[in-house]
Specification:
- Pfam families: Flavin_Reduct.
- Helix content is 12%, strand content 36%.
- By secondary structure, it is mainly beta.
- Strands 3-2-6-9-10-5-4 form a 7-stranded antiparallel beta sheet, covered by helices on one side.
- A hairpin with a 6-residue loop joins strand 9 and strand 10.
Length: 205
């Protein structure tokens, strides 16, 4: 089939999320100016550069108590910092619980029973025991087409790696099995990896 998004797809569920998959999940922790900690998962997320390390995530929903956005983006606008916690398979239920649409005064760490740890370079908390966490400072927020769609860019100022996930100087994802988002209500987990060497350039005469 072929469809133009502006005309609709005619299916029971939007296939776009299933097409662009699997997507890594950014479990984003922030702290409001009122001191309330917030934690929520975002699957429109990826790394954008490595020197210096930079990330981006997309926010595309609203809350009635957040003036056209969500708690994570509202807090980031106010404070300029956020932490991206990597979700392992063992934390899938806690991650899902933290996605509940609580009022802004609710701390999702407490509501979902998730332990906190302090960040080192930013005034924020992170998920204690996460296999990896990226402390970030906001660089820009870009308004996208559509209602309440934003791209949030940040530069990584600190990286936490869980010691048991480091093997021979490398982060071994099979030690924690990262969770990823597919379409609809579907998720996937990385359990096996394989390697491929990049081809060498063909010499020119």
């Amino acid at each position: 089939m072929f469809y133009r998004p502006a005309d609709g797809h005619g299916l029971r569920h939007n296939p776009f999320h299933a097409v662009v998959s699997p997507r890594p999940i950014a479990w984003i922790s922030t702290r409001g100016l009122d001191g309330v900690d917030n934690l929520a998962p975002y699957s429109f997320f990826n790394a954008m550069a490595s020197e210096p390390p930079q990330v981006v995530f997309g926010s595309s929903e609203t809350k009635p108590d957040r003036d056209g956005t969500k708690d994570s983006l509202g807090n980031i606008r106010d404070t300029g910092v956020f932490c991206i916690n990597i979700v392992e398979f063992a934390a899938r239920e806690a991650m899902n619980a933290s996605s509940a649409p609580h009022p802004r005064e609710v701390d999702e760490f407490g509501a979902a029973g998730i332990a906190k740890a302090s960040c080192e370079t930013i005034p924020c908390v992170r998920v204690a025991g996460a296999p990896a966490a990226l402390e970030c400072r906001l660089t820009r927020i870009v308004r996208l087409a559509g209602d309440a769609n934003y791209a949030v860019f940040g530069v990584v100022t600190g990286v936490h790696l869980r010691d048991d996930c480091l093997v021979d100087g490398r982060l071994d994802v099979t030690r924690y099995h990262p969770l990823s988002r597919l379409g609809y209500r579907d998720y996937a987990v990385v359990q096996e990896v394989f390697q491929m060497a990049r081809p060498r350039a063909i010499p020119t005469r």
